[in-house]
């Protein structure tokens, strides 16, 4: 993506792969799902993304895609990690790999995104604000919308290597909500740093998160979904709304790889997370913010309804999430005081809500989520449990 450190990591990866006899195609800053597509388009053996997604600029990481454009299994990732402990072997001089710069990578991806939008439809007459999070989608996302006919206002589309996700994007949609109201736009779309997550804003400034997007894609397209995979974080309101439409809803562990695994196990095509990581397997092999947003726009145009109208029928239960950052990673359930408090809270919520305590997969953080019918009680319980976690684990 657009982080400063990405260029350093790119050079190191390129050098190491070439030394191992591997040919490399360099794409430059590009959304994570674009690499999944380009891996298949070039019939490559693998794709590598340098990104820390929605994290601050000083974080960075590496993601792998298989030749089929899908994320690697946990088993294969563990096998790669074990190989890192082995001695490094440089190939013979006549067997070294080569590197090539792909100059039209963004254009190829833009055309791929447009191909997922029905050819007989267009976005003429729609005024859209797009928040690019100063990230990898800052070129492709506005271009896709404009080429489909929309009037586009792009914000947070001037990355400098340090401002990715900073007070903007899907994790901070407040400025998008304000821009939609100020510009009197029909809707807003917010990406995250590597453009694999999307949230939206209706013309009234209301946030439409991943759960609401799943509801629209499951119920408002020509062919309703057979089943939907959410996660443990998905709002109970989504489950109830889909049940009312006779659509099966199942929960996976938090993380798109687990959503993907359950989709494949059930033979379904639609799943995702409240954060906006949406899997439309009939359109893409991985979560793609631009493509998921286009499917919502297609439903709007086809039905002649606003985003606000498409969400009608989906009532969100009050939910409070409190993140507790720790000095070091710890298991909250190993603490007897916390374990007892969690058990007591679950008993109090039984039959009318949910409690979810989990460790972040990317940061030293404990996430405390409480869901129920009474917003005040939910907020109070979440804060009290978060304070106790902070007290017991050194937050």
Low-confidence stretches: none
Q: Biggest sheet, strands in spatial order?
A: 6-5-7-8-9
Amount of helix? 25-40%
Q: Kindly name the structural category.
A: alpha/beta
Principal-axis shape equals globular
Main sheet specs? 5 strands, mixed
Strand tally, please?
Answer: 16
Give the overall average pLDDT. Answer: 94
Please give the alpha-carbon distance between the first and last residues: 30 Å
Number of helices: 13
N-to-C SSE series? HEHEEHEHEHEHEEEHEHEHEEHHEHEEH
Question: What features would you highlight for this structure?
Answer:
single chain; 395 residues; alpha/beta; five-stranded mixed beta sheet; four-stranded mixed beta sheet; 13 helices; 19% strand
Question: Would you spell out the secondary-structure blueprint of this structure?
Answer:
Blueprint: H1 4-19, E1 24-26, H2 32-41, E2 46-50, E3 62-66, H3 74-83, E4 99-101, H4 105-115, E5 127-131, H5 140-147, E6 151-155, H6 174-183, E7 187-191, E8 198-202, E9 207-208, H7 210-219, E10 227-231, H8 236-244, E11 248-252, H9 256-266, E12 270-272, E13 278-280, H10 289-303, H11 307-310, E14 319-325, H12 336-349, E15 353-359, E16 365-372, H13 375-393
Parallel strand pairs: 1-4, 5-6, 5-7, 10-11, 10-12
Antiparallel strand pairs: 2-3, 7-8, 8-9, 12-13, 14-16, 15-16
Helix pairs in contact: 4-5, 12-13
